[in-house]
Amino acid sequence: MPRPIRIWYRGAMYHITARGNRKYDIFKAKEDYLHYLSLLEKAKSRTPFKIHSYCLMSNHIHLLIETKEHSPTEIIRYVHSMYARYFNKKYGFVGHVFQDRYYSKLITDWKQMIDVSRYIHLNPVKAKLTTKPEKYRWSSYKSFVTSHVDSLVDPEPILSRMGDNPKKSYKFYVGVNMKSEKIHPSQLK
């Protein structure tokens, strides 16, 4: 059975996820996280796109991206193939680092974009790695709620829809949802 065709057009936004093969860790050390982030930065220069939110967990990644001239397939293929080479060489492995191909969910409106960003930023809390998303190092959340600037991420499109005090409003929105039932972005309309 052939794979379903991925929808892509200029300016399309996606929630991208990928997990380690057999759910194994894809990040074992601080340097691994830093290397993956540097590959995203290189990919942005090579195949320009925007990252609106991200979170790197030990065995999977979440990216909220907006394409420009290149499809998500071109972007993720570059990052993941380069990262797999790095990871396999560093740890003496061979074969696939990522399980299957990446998952992508097309974002169809701004509400969904904001909800997916919240879901991404709450991932470390849900996994009980921290009680506050701003304490998790491998996430773009701090760029949304503090003066911290992360050159990799562009939070402005989301924050511009959060009212008069966008950082405070986004933090409240995420905080309120920390206490509520967790909804996976695939359940959003």
Key terms for this structure?
Transposase_17; Transposase_17_sf; globular; disordered C terminus; alpha+beta; 4-stranded antiparallel β-sheet; Transposase; 189 residues
Description:
The protein is an alpha+beta fold and 189 residues long. It has a single domain, classed as Transposase IS200-like (Alpha-Beta Plaits, 2-Layer Sandwich). It is 41% helix and 15% strand. It has six helices and four strands; from the N terminus they run βαββαβαααα. Strands 2-3-1-4 form a four-stranded antiparallel β-sheet, sandwiched between helices. β2 and β3 form a beta hairpin. α1 packs antiparallel against α2 and α3 crosses α6. It starts with 12 loop residues before the first strand and ends in a 10-residue tail after the last helix. The relative contact order is 0.17. The C terminus is likely disordered.
